[in-house]
Design a protein that fits this description.
The protein is an alpha+beta fold. A hairpin with a 5-residue loop joins strand 1 and strand 2. The chain is built from 2 helices and 3 strands.
């Protein structure tokens, strides 16, 4: 799913449902989700890699690794 989107793209509604459920399994889910999820995007991470970013309802953002959720 990560490579389905270009950098900067918002994740569509269907994939956002999957990512929401996945993020709830993250070891730091409470901190990553914070006040609630508004949307997901694919953005750059360290060393030119890409990862998912969650945008919270308060406008703050946090990156997360889907692998950490499994």
């Amino acid at each position: 799913m990560l490579y389905k989107y270009d950098l900067g793209d918002y994740v569509d509604e269907k994939d956002s449902i999957v990512l929401s459920e996945l993020l709830r399994r993250h070891p730091e889910a409470e901190r990553k989700i914070g006040p609630g999820i508004e949307s997901f995007r694919v953005k750059s991470a360290d060393n030119g890699t890409r990862c998912f970013w969650v945008t919270r309802v308060d406008g703050s953002e946090e990156r997360f690794s889907a692998r950490s959720c499994l």
